[in-house]
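QA checklist item 7 of 12: single-chain prediction sanity check.
[x] sequence parsed
[x] length recorded as 675
[x] structure emitted
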Amino acid sequence: MNTPNTAAMLLNIPGVSMYTGGGVSGLPAIHGLADDRVSTNVDGMPLLSSCPNHMNSPLSYISPSNVGSVKVITGLSPVSAGGDSLGGVVSVQSLPPVFANKGETLTQGEVGASYSSNATAIGGNLNVTAATDEFSANYTIDSVKAGNYTAGGNFKAPGNGISPSTVGASRYIATNQQLSLAWQKENHLIEFKAGYQFIPFEGYANQRMDMTKNQSEQFNLKYTGKYNWGTLEAQAYNQMVNHQMDDNTGARTSPAMPMLATSSTNGAIIKGTLPISETQLARVGTEWQGYKLNDWWPPTSSAPNGMMSPNTFENINNGTRDRFALFSELEQQWTKEWMGLAGVRVEQVASNAGDVQGYSNANQTMPMPPMNMRMSTNYLRDSTAFNAQQHKQTDYNWDLTALTRYKPDNTQNYEAGYSRKTRSPNLYERYSWSTTPMAAIMNNFVGDGNGYVGQITLAPEVANTISLASDWHDANKDVWGFKASPYYTYVSNYIDAACNTTCTVDRFNVLKYVNQDAQLYGLDLSGNVMLGKLQQLGRFQLTGQGSYTRGQNVTTGDNLYNIMPLNGKLGLVQYLGANWTNTIEGQFVAAKTNLNAVRNEIATGGYSLYNLRASYDDKKYRVNFGIENLLNKLYALPQGGAYQGQGNTMSTGVPYGTSVPGMGRSINTRLTLKF
């Protein structure tokens, strides 16, 4: 797959889908749970989105060309894999250090370039390494630039210089760099990684604003040591983020509204793995994370009591969110066929924020000439009410995982178990405070066009999950295989949305975060079979996967928002010799009709897409070629949100009812050369 979006690399895993945002900043969803509800880490760092729209997603900080390994747990996850989340785990590791043979030196590298016809996207990457048998130094850089992409046909009216088939605010420019140093001696390994990201612009077709800057520096120090008693892992990390949003696309008629945010994340993780006996393995550890966030919007003029003046609007003022956790788990091999794993994690999450102010110290109704409308502000009323409350909140959470695996022979294995997972509200869910529509709509993670107001006293979400997994295959796993994984999750105190005052059908509204109960259930299927071999044509394999997820708000009877409908893939793969791989793939998605009423979620139709891909790899160079959406199908992304890529976007009265479409036909190429 030729993509600059690391989250998109996960889409061939059953049960995984993606909230689409900017071109490099997708948010993975697992079994209907997404964003903060999924434990996502990059090189062991559980990074956070520091944006009221969650534009700077954790996986945006590593480029696909620098990905060394990806581990996704869609079922029951061990407590040692992370906390403060409800379900699955996404763990992405950058390329591991490379060392020379004993007494030798090593220099090697890789250079790559890519092009996609749709959006005229161009990219390039460089990876160079110099190493001895004990020391390794590596530098990587990956840069990509793309214009607005076009859908498979006209999906809305033209306007502001944007054609009916062009998805406004979908262009982007992004660069990620990383310097990695590693030292090894006998059974000890020390790794230091320094990363830098600069995104001067990334458009968001489903948000009111676009990202006009995201600058991040992250530092990661990790030690791994093997001792007679077991393995010790210790890690410390830091990330500093400078984030900016505004309307700089040139395709909107609303006034400028600069929005700034800075954050710092510091953390440490210590984990020990101890073999107790030949059949028992224990893991114990501790984790700490300290997070600080400031989110403020400078005034646009010095006019007294203006819509956006004369004060600085304080969205989150000196917000803090500190986590401390202890965990322990035991893995037991009962017999040759049976094993079990059980673990407990306890965690304290403390959050706080300072007092706030609006653009003005007044409540009033005033005209907004560029949009030919009037808008009421509640700056004084809302800030006074917020400041009068107790802001500090401390949650004491605990997680539990218990599972068993059964492998009667080399052709089948099974897993069954239960988990309890807990997630505390993030800072925006607790501390976003303004009910003024223009301010509220800027606080939105899900791209539905609505505005959101926080609630300080929100309780943590608690997910209770029962999961089964079956895997049948031939003894060598090279002829056929089939997997089936049903699951059920009940979430107490699920953070959903309710009307802040009143809501109007078929338009965008101001909502507030509330605790309610929810349930999610579904089934993942996947399989493959070798069809045979033909002289001169190579080997042929048939692959397939399918996923179904149903999400319901038990308290209200409503559907949960942004649940991926029934979907599947079917592929025919040709392996020609040792170098060629060719694929014909069909992707099939049902209509999204189970809609969230309170958000006025927009229905999407069912569709089928067809893709062609070919690759040649001789270990020195690799060539990829593909045509995505071969038939140039016009379709709406089920998890793409509401289209807001052009026009007046600073009020709830913008046109409603258009979903963000998927990309039309694109011819993609990539060349990678190793030296």
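[x] summary fact logged: The helical segments are 379-387, 427-431, 437-440.
[ ] second reviewer sign-off
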